[in-house]
Sequence to fold (632 residues):
Amino acid sequence: MKTLKISSFSEYEKQYEFSVSNPELFWDGVASTFLWKKKWDKTLTWNFEEPKVRWFEGATLNITENIFERNLPLKKDQLALIWEANDPSQTNRTYTFEELHHSVNQCANGLKALGITKGDRVCIYLPMVPELTIAVLACARIGAVHSVVFAGFSATSLSDRINDADAKLVITSDGLNRGTKQMSLKELVDEAISTTTSIEKVLVLKVTNEECPITESRDIWWHELIQNQSIICPAEVMNSEDNLFILYTSGSTGKPKGVVHTCGGYMVYTAYTFMNVYQYEDGDIHWCTADIGWITGHSYIVYGPLLCGATTVMFEGIPTYPEASRFWEIVEKYNVTQFLTAPTAIRSIMAFGEEPTQKHDLSSLKIIGTVGEPINEEAWHWYQDNIGKGTCPVVDNWWQTETGGIMISGIGGISPQKPTFAGYPLPGIQPVLLNQEGEEIKENEQEGYLCIKFPWPSMIRTTYGNHERCKEAYFSQYPGYYFTGDGAKRDTDGMYRIIGRIDDVINVSGHRFGTAEIENAINQNELIIESAVVGYPHPIKGQSIYAFVVCEHVPNDLNEARKAILLTVTDEIGKIALPEKIQFVSGLPKTRSGKIMRRILRKIAEGELDNLGDVSTLLDPSVVEDIVTNRL
Ligand code: PRX
Fold:
């Protein structure tokens, strides 16, 4: 890997040039630094029509051998994983590469004992504890496909994901610790699997030690299963294009889609991007504050850093517990060198002022990153001044669940940075901006739809169980391109600034939701006839959810009705998707053909009441007046 590390901007330019003119040779070079059991016959086969993308076809490997066997000779005793508990008085847990290897193998052998074999789907619904990383890698070790579900999702969401993936096993815990709260997870799992048919066993880890329901014939305690397992487990031989994992994400239509990533390409790309964006050097301590339930955690807590032999930090808690200085306390405690978080976390900490940031020594930091949503200029400067002390480069990482790894971003300390701009595409990435007609915008200083015109190794291969959906969502809008769903602008220097989603996707605190998904949830409430949901700017969360709901009869007690709707959304999706505002309206603005005019609702939610545009073509223009008058 070392030879492919970019160490100057001119080298970036050279690598970029080469990666575009000779993509296959370029990726051959990167891939050849890994451990393959058999080399590939063909670097790339692709078309964006079906779509069909295959990297390193014919090669065999196991991604965990590239984490362990490849790194162990030099890093056996180096820390691979540092885990910090929610409660600061609880002792942390650490694993060297050798210890993590043994734990992964024991878990892998445990999974085998439960009958899990290559290709089986395993759903992992765990809090941020070391066993989450161990379970993920254990699946990869034996070729089982992991589907991690963020532990903030409801039983219904979990059940949908289990059913879609046809998962055989769920790995969960009694409960989870989050700030001052403890929550039960096992009860949710029991509820979820009452509406599934594929689950054979439930593996339960003790985290909170609270009592939880156990079904003897089906549930197995993690500690009992693992204790006598061997620390040796041969790695399953995987084809480069075998599925590594499924991760569900929301789009503008229907239920969340299971994005599929495969072994070879994902490995090569996450390691390459981690190494370069974060300029990894031996001895660095990398901390990404995301949850492993999201793609950022998969790629930049687990796979990217561990493939590069880095020490990765996992944190169970939240930024403000027990105090607003918790993040900085952890940075100081472990001498964190690279720190990656989301704008929403930065803004929520900013609200406490600068004092919490001054209580700790942050001088170990070398590069700080932001990811998940557009960062506003104020937060960007606050972050660089108070956390980066004016000297650490800030890297703004733009990418998506579907892209597997960082696509457009600064390379720490190497490429120029500009507040609110993600920057230049990484080598191998060929972004374009398209206009409404689908033509490439060649000039700079223009805004357009961000698309990618050439494959990269970690791109989405399919949506699990429904390839047509993958084609429909990402490759049909503009034939011949991968459509990101984001709008972007390119400045005179060719740097990209991400403006935000241009489809019906809302980004709340860095979490993606489809408007249709939230509307479907709201509509489950018996009071509701129909609803429409839009996003509007929120000072901390980036965007918040505004719901316009139509009831058969306007409820007498609006607050009670709101509570009932919130409960329904909590049950259907989870607390992370709760609307901030719920307005009861007599009707929704619709065109004569019955389409909801979200544009108008968005303007109303944003408070741009003088700028609603033409409402005369609506089926019933009077509803707009009513909505404006009663706006929350
Ligand atoms: O709109 C973009 C936004 O988050 C979306 C992807 O969300 P998800 O698949 O959950 O992955 C999040 C972590 C990579 C994108 O379509 N987004 C992500 N990173 C940025 C961003 N918007 C602006 N700047 C970013 N750095």
